[in-house]
Amino acid sequence: MVLVDANDRVLLIRTAVDPWRPSAGHEWFTPGGGIEQGESPVQAAARELREETGLVIGPDELRPLARSSWRLRADLVHDDFFLCRVEAHEVDTGALDEIERRYNLGHHWWTYAELTATTETVYPVHLAALLRLVLREGCPPAPVELPAH
């Protein structure tokens, strides 16, 4: 999920690499997660957005933005990214379960300049380019295929 506010900032969640080993560090992710039985990717995105940020929106408010495919061991994994524009949103993590709370180390609304300048690990790796596209052109008519990472 690529959540962008009226100030053209994108929301990222700071996530522990290993919450039982703080020295393992952290990474930054857009909100998102897995698809539950019977869900479409866009329904899962709306649910994950609610669970991870407290933002309640319908799947019809999300626009397909990008897709990434990559290998996780022997499996081919597909990540679908949807765009949601909001005026503003105060993040509420109250719906996180116990395991998610261990991994969640906070959040930050990132500007394009911050994304291009950071040396931190950010996923998707091509987020700065996606944000630039959204800020210049809005949501593309068809999802952008991201290079594998």
TrEMBL record:
Signal peptide: none annotated. Residues 1-133 form the Nudix hydrolase domain. GO terms for molecular function: hydrolase activity. It comes from the Bacteria. Pfam families: NUDIX. Keywords: Hydrolase, Magnesium. InterPro entries: Nudix_hydrolase, NUDIX_hydrolase-like_dom_sf, NUDIX_hydrolase_CS, NUDIX_hydrolase_dom. Its cofactor is Mg(2+). The keyword Hydrolase applies. Belongs to the Nudix hydrolase family. This is NUDIX hydrolase. The lineage of its organism: Bacteria, Bacillati, Actinomycetota, Actinomycetes, Micromonosporales.
